[in-house]
Amino acid sequence: MGFLNIFGKSDEQKAKEERERIAKKLSHGKETPAIQNQSNEPLEAGGVFGVKGSYSIIGVGLVSVGIVESGVLRPNQTAVVNGKIAVIKSIEANRQQIPVAKVGQNVGISLKGMSKDDVQNGLQIHFR
After folding, report:
1. Nearest alpha carbon to residue 124 among 90, 73, 57
2. Residues 6 or more apart in contact with residue 66 via CB below 8 angstroms
3. Would 64 disulfide with which of 21, 54, 82, 127, CB 3.0-4.6 Å?
């Protein structure tokens, strides 16, 4: 639960509105301003992750496996799947957590805010 600021909207509400605004722009293919991850550090230009399979894992949630097609993938980046926004919680390669995944790497990503029904094989996940 966020605190109510002097202008009446909580920080959580402002963050939700910002995510919705960004998702709307991304879904229409328009240029978007740089967004920030949860640590408020500027993110690099976005990229694409190609999904080869998705699994629901107890205690972890949705894990999608596939290949980084473009960009550099890091935990806490924002991902957009069919207009829905998720956060990349972690990245694994060869059953080891890694801090970064680059183009051509086959990895598994844990997605917060998605269900298995949201992510199908062959789908491209756009991240920033």
Report:
1. 73
2. 49, 50, 51, 52, 53, 106, 107, 109, 125
3. 54
d(CA 84, CA 100): 23
Q: How far apart are CA 95 and CA 97, in angstroms?
A: 7
The values of phi and psi at residue 50, to 5°, are -90, 120
pLDDT (tens digit, 9 = 90+) per residue, 7-39?
566 666 766 676 666 666 655 554 444 444 444
Write out the two tokens for 58. Answer: 């107890």
Q: Which residue ranges form the domains of the chain, and what is each CATH number?
A: 43-127 (2.40.30.10)
> What one-character-per-residue DSSP string does 60-118 give?
TEEEEEEEEEES-B-TT-EEEETTEEEEEEEEEETTEE-S-B-TT-EEEEEEET--GGG
| DSSP structural state of residue 39 | T
Strand 78-81 with 124-127, pairing: antiparallel
What is the model's pLDDT at position 83?
83
Amino acid, res. 92: E
